[in-house]
């Protein structure tokens, strides 16, 4: 099976969910017009990755009014699943006949965990159905100030009209058991959602493709210093140039032998596309299959 995939490399309208959703709908339409059948967005694209956690002063201060205000705005602009935003995303996928992977800040609205935010990946079929959601297992370092931990039940590939798809978010790619769980579920295409795909993130994405014998769509976003929340003070070294990029994109599309098929592209908004051929997976499995002939469950079983 051959089809075109797209990594959307763009800046959302930070901390503005309605405006970011409108931009996403436009970008989905543009990707479809370029022939894409799978459209992938970067980590927490709705309503934007919280780079202020590492780029602003005093974000870890206890009882800080400014940080509380930013968190409130983030929560108010996060996505309830299911809800009006997932309905709109499903409608966009259906209207343009694409499988859509969107990463969001998710807000639990009712029941246990009410008020908790999660870093969540949503997969929609080309009929608009929400097929799968995955919450990031372990927020990384400063991210633990704002996100809860996922429960791991979502570590599996999902059948779509374009093959079996799975995904991990950012540093989950350095969690060996998480990788193996997804490999064993039989991914054809893996979505690697990042804030931006800097050097080591590209290394992890290429390693995942080679190890899992699958195609990888590594998607990164853009963010300028001027996009940081107005309530917070940027670090001194960032204040001189409000147009400097904190997140630089770096999106890439990678084959099942680790070869880069498109990208990486930095410092510009782009819909990065490539045609992929799923029959390549079987060819590469001849030499390496970490769930089959290159596995040793008799050795690496439970301790």
From TrEMBL:
InterPro entries: C-N_Hydrolase (IPR003010), C-N_Hydrolase_sf (IPR036526), Nitrilase/CN_hydratase_CS (IPR000132), Nitrilases_CHs (IPR044149). Belongs to the carbon-nitrogen hydrolase superfamily. Nitrilase family. Residues 3-278 form the CN hydrolase domain. The keyword Hydrolase applies. Keywords: Hydrolase. It comes from Hymenobacter terrestris. The active site is at residue 43. This is Carbon-nitrogen hydrolase family protein. Pfam families: CN_hydrolase. One of its GO terms (molecular function) is hydrolase activity.
């Amino acid at each position: 099976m051959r089809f075109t995939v797209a990594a959307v490399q763009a800046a959302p309208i930070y901390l503005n969910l309605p405006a970011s959703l409108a931009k996403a709908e436009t970008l989905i339409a543009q990707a479809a017009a370029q022939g894409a059948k799978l459209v992938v967005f970067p980590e927490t694209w709705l309503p934007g990755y919280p780079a202020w956690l590492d780029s602003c002063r005093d974000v870890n201060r206890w009882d800080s009014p400014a940080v509380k205000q930013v968190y409130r705005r983030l929560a108010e602009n996060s996505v309830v699943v299911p809800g009006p935003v997932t309905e709109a995303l499903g409608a966009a996928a259906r209207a343009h006949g694409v499988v859509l992977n969107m990463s969001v800040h998710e807000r639990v609205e009712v029941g246990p965990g009410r008020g908790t935010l999660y870093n969540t990946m949503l997969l929609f079929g080309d009929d608009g159905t929400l097929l799968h959601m995955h919450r990031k297992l372990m927020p990384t370092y400063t991210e633990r100030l704002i996100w809860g931990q996922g429960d791991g039940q979502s570590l599996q590939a999902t059948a779509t009209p374009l093959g079996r798809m799975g995904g991990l978010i950012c540093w989950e790619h350095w969690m060996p058991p998480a990788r193996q769980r997804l490999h064993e579920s039989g991914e054809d295409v893996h979505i690697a959602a990042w804030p931006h795909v800097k050097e080591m993130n590209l290394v992890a994405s290429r390693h995942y493709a080679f190890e899992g014998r699958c195609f990888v769509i590594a998607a990164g976003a853009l963010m300028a210093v001027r996009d940081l929340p107005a309530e917070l003070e940027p670090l001194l070294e960032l204040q001189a140039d409000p147009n400097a990029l904190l997140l630089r994109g770096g999106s890439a599309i990678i084959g099942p032998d680790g070869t880069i098929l498109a990208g990486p592209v930095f410092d510009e908004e782009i819909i990065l596309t490539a045609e992929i051929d799923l029959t390549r997976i079987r060819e590469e499995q001849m030499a390496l299959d970490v769930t089959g002939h290159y596995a040793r469950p008799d050795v690496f079983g439970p301790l």
